[in-house]
Amino acid sequence: MGAGGGAAAAAAAAHRAKLREEEERLTGYIPQDLEGWEFKIVRSSGKIVGDKFVRLVEEEKLNGWELVEKFDDNRVRFKRRTEHRSRDGMQGIEAYRTTFGLSETRLVLIVLGVMAAVMALTIVFVTNL
Predict the structure, then answer these.
(1) Cβ distance 106 to 43 under 8 Å?
(2) Do residues 103 and 45 touch, judged by C-beta distance below 8 A?
(3) Domain 8-103 belongs to what topology?
(4) What is the Cα–Cα distance from 129 to 126, expressed in whole angstroms?
(5) Which residues have C-beta within 8 Å of that of residue 48, sequence separation ≥ 6?
(6) Higher model confidence: residue 126 or residue 53?
(7) What are the pLDDT digits (tens) for 59-83?
(8) Whole-model pTM above 0.70?
(9) Does 95 have pLDDT greater than 90?
């Protein structure tokens, strides 16, 4: 990875750290808030808007999760009563999933794959001139 790629990776890591710090600050709970409840944040590398947002909320509802707030178009917080744990696995959707749509890792792999293909095609084209 070149200097530009290293700088981009460092910037992305710093951005993720900033978002996590923000989430920690916005989700401060006192012990009474947690009694009988569990919380999670679902993240997406793409925007969770419109029909995608409705689908996410409906899917989470199957496992007893309730919408708490939408931080932005990529992060949504849910809560549910701990009694719902006994039904986990019955709905065909992972109750503790924290990603929706493409994960960041999968997105990066797709981008790298496309870049590698473009480079390979460029090499083939240039060597055949």
Answers:
(1) no
(2) yes
(3) Alpha-Beta Plaits (3.30.70)
(4) 5
(5) 42, 56, 70, 73, 74, 76, 100, 101
(6) 53
(7) 999 999 999 999 899 999 999 999 9
(8) no
(9) yes
